[in-house]
Amino acid sequence: MRPVQSSVLCRLLPGPFSLALRSLVLVLLCITPHCQAVQAENVTVLEGGTAQISCRLQNYDGSIVVIQNPRRQTLFFNGTRALKDDRFQMVLFTPRLVRITLTNVSVFDEGGYFCQLYTDATHHQVATLSVLVPPEIPTVEVKQEAVEGGEVELTCVSPRSKPAATLRWMRNGREIPGVVSQQDNGKTFSVSSTIRIPVERKDNGAALSCEAFHPALGTQRRLRHYRLDVYFAPTVRIVPPSGILREGDSLTLTCSVTGNPLPRNIQWSKINDTLPERAEISGPTLQISRLSQSHNGTYLCQAQNNYGRAADHYTLLVYDPGAVVETHSAVPYAVIGGVLALLVFTVICVLIVTIWCSVRQKGSYLTHEASGLDEHGEVQEAFLNGNDASQGKKEYLL
């Protein structure tokens, strides 16, 4: 009686770095105890790795065993190489197990490898080879430069993976949603994720990252770090010296400049005049030795880049030590002079008031005295005339 041929597919659960058995397939179940059967093991391997393709035999009696590739080209005939491809090697040929290896596996090696047993009837089973292509570290593409007050468009690209990788943008531990696109390249996939974010000066140097996840990596990830490069106009600030500058001192002015790109050329000048002969410029620093009052004036520091220009100024005032002392000593005398003038004015006012009051009082006294003499004369005249005083007075009055 001829054996009955059937097949049973039994798949195992997937694992993260599985390079070996993924499933075990039984080709032929025999109903007689001595019939022959062949089994093939499915294999999953990373691109560039080594795959082991195994054919298990049951009740093998020395019949012919042939292994073919997905294109049905014979690789081995009973252990003898049939195809000139040195990547394939026969590593084991026993009555129970036939095993070959394939090194430097590529996605083009994927497919079904046939394990065939030639008896009265031909029995075969296919060992499926699957190749995983993990993504490389993704790249970041910038569509246009980031300028203060505008937006920047960043695209994270994973050009080749199988199956397609998953991309994710992160900033400060938070995910930035992106627009994802995927392209089928035949055997592999290219994936990209694009984000658009507004940028300010403070965002210059901000850290972002693009992460690529893939089944072949398990819990690991491919990570690309990216720092924002935000362009902005410069700012300029002159750091002034401390204290009062006197003749003979030295002046050092430092021009603090920021900007992206940082201005390389820093210009020093003096408004409405030329820089002093003793002025020395070293990058952002201006130095003038042995100061004099002829150095007084306003000094200007300017810087510019492709995105703008900025300037700051410092007004120099050199003091003469002698003039400073004289000015300070003249202040008390001026105060004393003012006080004395006020006192003299007060005394004069008091004298004027006193004299005026005295004159007024004296005039009043003379008037009263004259009135008294007139009355006395009238009385005397009446007495001499033999009249009484009242009558005489009366007649005087009439």
How much helix, percentage-wise, in residues? 10-25%
Q: Could you tell me how far the N terminus lies from the C terminus, measured between alpha carbons in angstroms? A: 195 Å
The topology string of helices and strands comes to EEEEEEEEEEEEEEEEEEEEEEEEEEEHH
Shape: rod-shaped
* Total number of helices: 2
Radius of gyration: 58 Å
Which consecutive residue ranges, at least 5 long each, have pLDDT under 50? 1-33, 324-331, 365-373, 375-398
Largest β-sheet summary: 11 strands, mixed
Keywords:
5-stranded mixed sheet, alpha+beta, disordered N terminus, 11-stranded mixed sheet, 398 residues
Structure description:
The structure is a single chain. With 398 residues, this protein is α+β, with helices and mostly antiparallel strands. The chain has helices at 321-384, 389-397, and strands at residues 8-11, 21-26, 37-46, 51-58, 64-68, 74-77, 80-81, 88-93, 97-102, 111-118, 122-132, 139-142, 146-147, 151-161, 166-171, 174-176, 179-184, 189-198, 207-213, 222-227, 230-239, 251-260, 266-270, 279-282, 285-288, 297-305, 308-316. The strands form five sheets. Strands 1, 2, 3, 4, 5, 6, 7, 8, 9, 10 and 11 form an eleven-stranded mixed β-sheet that branches. Mean pLDDT is 81; it is low at 1-33, 324-331, 365-373 and 375-398.
